[in-house]
Amino acid sequence: MSEENKPEIDEHTGVETTGHEWDGLKELNNPAPRWWLWIFYITIIWSVGYWIVYPSWPTLSGATKGVIGWTQFTKLEAEQAEIAARQQQFLEKFEPASFNQILNDQELYAFAVAGGRAAFKDNCATCHGTGAEGGKGYPNLNDDDWIWGGHVEEIYETLLYGIRSTHEETRYNIMPRFGVDGLLKREEVAIMTDYVLAISGGAKTGTFARGAEIFKSQCASCHGADGRGDHDFGAPNLTDAIWLYGGERQDVYESIFYARAGMMPHWQGRLDENTIRQLSVYVHEMGGGEGVKPEERAALDVQGVSLDARE
Ligand code: HEC
Ligand code: HEC
Q1: For residue 167, what are the CA distances in angstroms to 153, 159, 162, 174, 234?
Q2: CA angle 240-137-185, nearest 5°?
Q3: Which of 4, 64, 104, 129 to pair with 223, CA 20 to 30 A apart?
């Protein structure tokens, strides 16, 4: 033992020092205060109790179980059971209700919209955007411009079977690849591009009459004689300047030259029936669907179900 480490008695207090010294300041070897010791003992007793009651010590096969059987999973299960029970009470009324009944019953309607909104975020937002605003090739579902129809039953069918999906009942229609397959010459595709731009509000060009002729023989069967589209064929309205694939001249040219054939998955078998019905009502609502009167909307807003929320 070196000279400095030897216990020494502090001359002012008479207490033994620990032998530690910093710049002339010496540490006294006082016992810990009683209150502090008591808290220390209580925490030890507490922790022993805790080990017995709750799962704590790791073992080879997991951890000690604890006498009350608490786990984060049982806690979660209990919470989920509570939510499920609350939903069950709505589901019992929702399940047998027709779309018409749902659209005319405030409670069922609010239930559908809330459930549909949550399911939309999980399953649809990747393609259609979180606000359902769409993007190139993915239709905006907020407007009342529908390719396959905006009645709630039509939306339901779109969701069940998908569009050009692998479901055997899928909505299906393929526009011919006019350029690629040589059905129209390049200059004819150009003429049709100008024609489509003209009927959607653009200026008429010198080839408009020729375009109208080709449209009648090649396009009208799907897009309609007036170019307003046809929900039965999933052919978009070409006159409303709302474009699925872009309205620049080059976009329209490519739509006609290559054709597009967008794919939307089917949801039957992936989502349960109730969720698909909730989604149908939600999407219908977003597109300003018919069947809900303004005063009902106002009442729902009061209930805190903001129908106009576009988060
Ligand atoms: C993989 C991408 C993708 C996902 C995921 C997806 N969609 Fe679509 N959806 C599309 C495409 C592409 C179209 C347009 C198909 C076409 O050209 O007709 C479409 C069309 C639609 C239409 C028809 C719109 C109309 O104007 O008739 C509805 C309704 C729709 N989607 C709703 C949904 C809902 C609800 C979900 C979630 C359950 C969803 N989509 C998930 C890609 C997707
Ligand atoms: C067999 C039916 C069919 C015929 C015939 C047809 N189309 Fe289409 N057309 C469609 C469908 C279906 C779509 C939507 C494609 C998709 O969603 O992928 C479409 C999409 C388009 C678009 C893109 C619209 C947008 O919003 O971006 C244009 C432009 C178009 N067609 C023009 C024409 C012209 C011009 C002709 C005639 C030369 C024609 N189509 C003939 C079915 C048809």
Answers
A1: 18, 11, 7, 16, 17
A2: 75
A3: 129
Q: How many angstroms is it from 175 CA to the middle of ligand 2?
A: 5
CA distance 281 to 110: 10
* Cα 194 to Cα 131, 229, 297, distances in angstroms: 33, 18, 42
> What's this model's pTM, rounded to 2 decimal places?
0.76
For ligand 2, what atom is nearest to the CA of residue 218?
37
State what percent of residues in the chain have pLDDT above 70.
90
CA 128 / ligand 1 centre spacing (Å): 7
pLDDT digits (tens, 9 = 90+) for 199-252: 999 999 999 999 999 999 999 999 999 999 999 999 999 999 999 999 999 999
CB 79 within 8 A of CB 71: no
User: Which atom of ligand 2 lies closest to the CA of 189?
Assistant: 38
How many angstroms does the Cα of residue 111 sit away from the middle of ligand 2? 37
Q: Whose CA is nearest to atom 5 of ligand 2?
A: 219
Which domains are assigned to the chain? 88-159+272-302 (1.10.760.10), 175-258 (1.10.760.10)
Q: How far, in Å, is the centroid of ligand 1 from the Cα of 167? A: 14
Tokens 């569009």 belong to 163
